[in-house]
Amino acid sequence: MSESNNFGTSQINQFNTAGELTHLLTLEGLPKEQLLHILDTAKQFVSVTDPAREVKKVPLLRGKNVFNLFFENSTRTRTTFEIAAKRLSADVINLDISTSSTAKGESLLDTIDNLVAMQADIFVVRHGVSRAPIEIAQHVPSHVHVVNAGDGSHQHPTQGLLDMYTMRHFKKDFTSLKVAIVGDIVHSRVAKSNICALRTLGCTDIRAIGPESLLPSDLDMLGVKVFHSMEEGLRGVDVVMTLRIQKERMEVGQVPEGAAFFKQYGLTSSRLALAQPDAIVMHPGPMNRGVEIDSVVADGPQSVILNQVTFGIAVRMAVMSIVAGN
User: Fold this and answer.
1) Residues 211-235: pLDDT tens digits?
2) Model pLDDT for residues 105-126, shown as the tens digit of each residue
3) Model pTM score
4) Which of 177, 188, 277, 287 is the most buried (most CB within 10 A)?
């Protein structure tokens, strides 16, 4: 398996012979109708996540085993997947990768075979190598489902979906949205999933803001407008999404660090004022305050960052229930 930073995805089959979604591996090429079906299903699950609800479970995955396989660190994604599975009444197994047989030299697919033998029904996979969840999906029996929880710099489809849910919740119509994505886009699987979904849902004004070294070379082919100035790129937008600088995926010195990056590309109150007065601020987390975003903005009235996390539970409930055939 090799790492890849580009947007292209070659022939990934996420559907069974009946045309039903059986894996969620990428948002690239996923039909608009399917995207909307997931978002509409998630809306039904939002009431299940309501803190005021006494019983926060539905029986859709009762008797199913969901294995969380996280080969990279995660807080929000792993935890919300676990909550989502439990609220669907599934049994959840969190595999400790550091003590698993993969740490002893066992191959990834051999590990998967053994977990299938333990009656796994759904694998939620995060991996540092692009396409690892795709290889797993191509390997498992037809009754087993795979959900990509982020692979390398490739895709993070459930994050893209929860971001679409958040935008639709606060802004309604995608066709008139102006969306700015700021920062480390070349290494961001979140940005790639968001751009794919926004294009599919009819957004025609998508802007990428950042230094040249952090912007993919093929953005113009996707109809994404490129800006190297925050002041120019943020003018008049409805949504501002800032991204974490992924130092673990880049060479030393590739971009200015810390305060130097914040001076050029940090989202401050004065820069946010260039956007629409009712613009929303998003961030997939984890945030580096004072690097990509000012605390005043992150905690301010236009921030919907915590809403994203809450909506993520409902979206992941929707994804798992749909791929499992419910």
Assistant:
1) 998 999 999 999 999 999 999 999 9
2) 789 999 999 999 999 999 999 9
3) 0.92
4) 188
